[in-house]
Amino acid sequence: MLLNILNPSLAALCVRVVLRDPAMRPSRYGVEPLRTAFFQAAFSAAQHDPELRGYYLRKCAQGKCHHLALTHLMRILTRRLVAVLRSQQPYTPKEVFFLEDAA
């Protein structure tokens, strides 16, 4: 879905850069449209994905600022993208249990 937004040459560059070093952390340098797309995806995931929303809220509770918590989500989304591209299988989210639902 994210790669549909980008043009094909930029998507190919993204895949080459991401697959080269999976431990690479996002920096403020690099391909600006790609960083913008991941930032927007992380912002949306923090609101709509229960698993990532919980992670975002935990980071904020630890005292991390909004931007840093979103950067953590960007890294998680990058790892998910790499896993999907390598395995050629769709992403299957984990089940998230909330304390209110467990009782």
Keywords:
mainly alpha; globular; 0% strand; single chain; 103 residues
Principal-axis shape: globular
C-alpha end-to-end distance: 36 Å
Q: Mean pLDDT score, rounded? A: 76
Order of helices and strands: HHHHHH
How much helicity do the residues have? 55-70%
Strand content: under 5%
What structural class do you assign from the helix and strand content? mainly alpha
Overall tally of domains: 1
Low-pLDDT segments: 4-8
Q: What gyration radius follows from the Cα positions, in whole Å?
A: 15 Å
Biggest sheet character: none
Brief overview:
This protein has one domain (about 1-100). The chain has 6 helices and no strands.
Description:
By secondary structure, the protein is mainly α. It has one domain. Helices cover 70% and strands 0% of the residues. Helix 3 crosses helix 4 and helix 4 packs antiparallel against helix 5. The chain starts with a helix and ends with a helix. Residues 4-8 have low confidence and may be disordered.
